[in-house]
UniProtKB/TrEMBL annotation:
<dbReference type="InterPro" id="IPR010963">
    <property type="entry name" value="PHA_synth_I"/>
</dbReference>
<dbReference type="InterPro" id="IPR051321">
    <property type="entry name" value="PHA/PHB_synthase"/>
</dbReference>
<feature type="domain" description="Poly-beta-hydroxybutyrate polymerase N-terminal">
    <location>
        <begin position="109"/>
        <end position="280"/>
    </location>
</feature>
<keyword id="KW-0012">Acyltransferase</keyword>
<dbReference type="Pfam" id="PF07167">
    <property type="entry name" value="PhaC_N"/>
</dbReference>
<dbReference type="InterPro" id="IPR029058">
    <property type="entry name" value="AB_hydrolase_fold"/>
</dbReference>
<keyword id="KW-0963">Cytoplasm</keyword>
<feature type="compositionally biased region" description="Basic and acidic residues">
    <location>
        <begin position="576"/>
        <end position="589"/>
    </location>
</feature>
<feature type="region of interest" description="Disordered">
    <location>
        <begin position="570"/>
        <end position="612"/>
    </location>
</feature>
<protein>
    <submittedName>
        <fullName>Class I poly(R)-hydroxyalkanoic acid synthase</fullName>
    </submittedName>
</protein>
<keyword id="KW-0808">Transferase</keyword>
<dbReference type="InterPro" id="IPR010941">
    <property type="entry name" value="PhaC_N"/>
</dbReference>
């Protein structure tokens, strides 16, 4: 052995030190640029004032907590005991003895999936200490008496946002994966992370919102939303798409899909292997889809009623004019389902409900009493804030996108902070997240009507409380057969809320519960062999979702074939397939049309952005 190896090791260490020093010099320079960029944009960007909703909520919470000091002392003693137990467990493990975890992450929590969080004693202690504290804070807030229902829900929601933000996984010095990457790359990850952060600040005009995916990897009509079809009708509010058949014969009654206008329709047609639209054509349905316009200042006078008359009713008329069929089956997805039910009640009021022979609701709410965490954003303060942002006649799409991201902040905010800023990686090309960021605007009158009358006042489920087209509408007058799809882990249209749809109508209803959430619970192609679904064919009336689920039967895989058996029996006999290019309405352009390709206005200097 010579002295050569120690010398080489010293040189390598010196080189590594130089690389670290160079990278941290870059970090210092970029940090200065970040601060400058942020401050400059804050000076140029008008940000609406916070109405104090969060502050008011926690003030009420603290007042109620202080009214029972004994309960606070009891809760603090319980937390102290938990800490002592954790210290004892950590000491046992440090001495080489077996000591199981006192607290573990919830199923599906991806923040602590790295083995270091369990195998390394220090990080295991940090993880358990955080989970113990976060659970204690959330349980203590949930246990406060005397708050009204809405204030309590807001307090619990804001508390979870806070505890999620304080997760050790979100910080450089307490995330083992980030520390490991920093050592391995000699700090390059932090350099790239700051570059990503600066790019995001420039892209969003000073609003620090991390990019979710590589948007350059996708193009609507090129590699997503590519199922063949034609635009056969359009007006100011929508284009009506008819898709090309893939079978020689089709069911006589066409299928009209009404998607939500909060997002674009192509969630139902992302790519061939998971396209619901393509799959429906393969089952022998003539598929029509409404593609909503991306509103701007030209649509300031559009109302909820406009979406009924120029949307669903106009589509029904266009289908009849094109292929001669007056009777259809329909699907309403999310808010598109709310609109579909409202339209059906209107048709019942004017004696034309037979135009729709069967309807399916995907994750649609009609009674908003238990509408989940979105209710946090529909009190008077929040609605006034939203309305203040619509002075130009519409709400910019990024506002709704930011709100939905807050509902799942760990998955849709913090995971990208870690990936993009701490690990310094570029976001992965993912079609679903591309769709998620392809925002749509909301016309002022329509959106205010929806927030106030559906979420805040919950009028749709009250017979005659709403008037559309001059007709007081009543959902109980609808006798059409109804298929109701709900998702077990839906955070936007919770199962408890969707279950109430089973009690709204006079006709027969069938409820089916899918595994997963608001999107994956719906978009689950049979070939994927993922998740599961539950059905309940017992001829019983259930008062609650829990009672229905207790009697339900679980089935593996997609629910689409089960639904197809239901709808096919209501779609009439088979007839020769219809070519959208040969209908009585002359095609305007190829699917997916031009409306869906219109992007919402980028982050503007006038309106700032970001949810309060």
């Amino acid at each position: 052995m010579s002295n050569k190896e120690p010398l080489e090791s010293s040189q390598e260490a010196l080189e590594a030190s130089k690389e670290f020093a160079e990278n941290f010099a870059k970090i210092a320079a970029q940090s200065q640029e970040l601060v400058t960029e942020f401050l400059n944009n804050q000076q140029k960007t008008h940000i609406d004032p916070d109405p104090g909703t969060v502050g008011k909520t926690f003030m009420e919470l603290m007042n109620k907590m202080m009214a029972d000091p004994g309960k606070i002392i009891e809760a603090q003693a319980a937390l102290w005991k938990n800490y002592m137990d954790l210290w004892q467990s950590a000491a046992l493990r440090a001495s080489g003895q077996e000591a199981g975890p006192l607290v573990t992450p919830e199923s599906g929590d991806k923040r602590f999936k790295s083995e270091e969080w369990s195998q390394n004693q220090i990080f295991d202690y940090i993880k358990q200490s955080y989970l113990m504290t976060a659970n204690w804070i959330q349980e203590t807030v949930a246990d406060v008496d005397g708050l009204d229902k809405q204030t309590k829900q807001k307090a619990e929601f804001y508390t979870k946002l806070y505890t999620d933000a304080m997760s050790p996984s979100n910080f450089f010095w307490s995330n083992p994966d980030v520390l490991k990457k920093t050592v391995e790359s000699k700090g390059e990850n932090l350099v790239h992370g700051l570059e990503n952060m600066l790019d995001d600040l420039k892209r969003t005009k000073g609003q620090l919102i991390p990019k979710m995916t590589d948007e350059s990897a996708f193009e609507v009509g090129r590699n997503i939303a590519v199922t063949p079809g034609k635009v056969i009708f359009e007006n100011d509010l929508m284009q009506l798409l008819q898709y090309a058949p893939t079978t020689k014969e089709v069911y006589k009654r066409p299928l009209l899909i009404t998607p939500p206008w909060i997002n674009k329709f192509y969630i139902l047609d992302l790519k061939a292997e998971n396209s619901f639209i393509k799959w429906c054509t393969e089952q022998g349905y003539t598929v029509f889809v409404i593609s909503w316009v991306n509103p701007d200042e030209r649509h300031v006078d559009k109302t909820f009623e406009s979406y009924m008359s120029e949307g669903v009713l106009a589509a029904l008329d266009a289908i009849e004019a094109s292929i001669g069929e007056r009777e259809v089956t329909t699907i309403g997805y999310c808010i598109g389902g709310t609109l579909m039910a409202s339209t059906m009640a209107y048709l019942a009021a004017i004696g034309e409900q037979d135009r729709i022979k069967a309807t399916t609701f995907f994750a649609a709410q009609l009674d908003f009493e238990e509408a989940g965490d979105l209710l946090v954003f529909t009190d008077e303060d929040h609605i006034k804030l939203v309305e203040s942002k619509m002075k130009g006649g519409y709400l910019e799409g990024k506002e709704m996108a930011n709100t939905f991201n807050l509902l799942r902040s760990n998955d849709l905010i913090w995971s990208f902070v870690i990936n993009n800023y701490l690990l310094g990686k570029s976001p992965f090309p993912f079609d679903l997240l591309y769709w998620n960021t392809d925002a749509t605007n909301m016309p002022q009158k329509m959106h205010s009507f929806y927030l106030r009358n559906m979420y805040q006042k919950n009028l749709l489920q009250q017979p005659g409380a709403l008037t559309l087209g001059g007709q007081p509408i009543d959902l109980s007058k609808i006798k059409t057969p109804i298929f109701i799809q709900a998702s077990k882990e839906d955070h936007i249209a919770p199962f408890k809320s969707v279950f109430k749809n089973t009690k709204m109508f006079s006709g027969p209803t069938e409820l089916m519960l899918a595994g997963s959430g608001h999107i994956a619970g719906v978009i689950n192609h049979p070939d994927a062999k993922k998740y599961q679904h539950w059905t309940n064919t017992k001829k019983k009336k259930y008062d609650t979702a829990e009672e229905w689920f207790a009697d339900a039967t679980e089935h593996p895989g997609s629910w689409w074939p089960y639904w197809d058996k239901w709808l096919s029996k209501k779609s009439g006999p088979k007839v020769p397939a219809r070519d959208p290019a040969k209908g009585k309405l002359k095609p305007i352009e190829d699917a997916p049309g031009s409306y869906v390709k219109v992007k919402a206005k980028p982050y503007s200097e006038d309106n700032g952005g970001g949810s309060k």
